[in-house]
Amino acid sequence: MIDFSAGLWLVLMLMLAAIAGGLNLPTCWRLAHRGASIRGTVIEVLPNMHATVRYRYNVDGREFFGQRQPRPPNPSFERLAEGAPLTVWYDPEHPEVSVLGLPGALLQGEAISVMLWAVIAPTFILLAWQFRRLWAPT
User: Fold this and answer.
1) How many C-beta neighbours within 10 Å does residue 33 have?
2) What's the total number of domains in the chain?
3) Order of strands, edge to edge, in the sheet holding 85-91?
4) Given 3-state DSSP classes, what are the helix, strand and coil percentages for the chain, each rounded to the nearest 5?
């Protein structure tokens, strides 16, 4: 029984890592490895949307917009107002993709989140399954 549970845990862990990792990790990786920084401007602060700001930035004469939570080295949300300058990191191959924080730090945080999700979720799923089997009426 232990071998079956360990194998099932591993399969669930790999599936969840692939699903969760496929959401934001590729974008974070590209930005961390080839991202460029540029000055942007806050166009709206959104305190009711998890301290998010809308911003704009220009790349090669084209204007782009984004909506994110500011991360260091940008000022904290509380210190931002409409018109405030920001540092925006964008993907030179896809300049519409941008973030408001150091891409390497964002990649590290995302990788940690994916790993925790991939380890904790299958553990709870299998524990719930085992408790259900143990306590189910026979």
Assistant:
1) 11
2) 1
3) 62-68, 52-59, 36-46, 85-91, 94-99
4) 50, 30, 20
Strand 52-59, strand 94-99: pairing: unpaired
Could you report the per-residue pLDDT of 10-32, keeping only the tens digit for each?
A: 887 888 777 777 768 888 899 99
Say what the pTM is.
Answer: 0.73
In this structure, how many other beta carbons lie within 10 angstroms of the beta carbon of residue 90? 22
Q: Which residue has the tokens 């490895």?
A: 33
- For the chain, percent of residues with pLDDT exceeding 90: 51
Q: Rounded distance, CA 98 to CA 94, Å?
A: 9
Helix axes 2-34, 103-135, angle to 10 degrees: 160
Beta bridge partners of 57: 40, 64
Q: Which amino acid is at 48?
A: N
| Predicted pLDDT at 2 | 53
Strand residues in the chain grouped as ranges (E): 36-46, 52-59, 62-68, 85-91, 94-99
> In the 3-class helix/strand/coil scheme, how is 90-108 assigned residue by residue?
EECCEEEEEECCCHHHHHH
> Range of 125's domain?
2-135
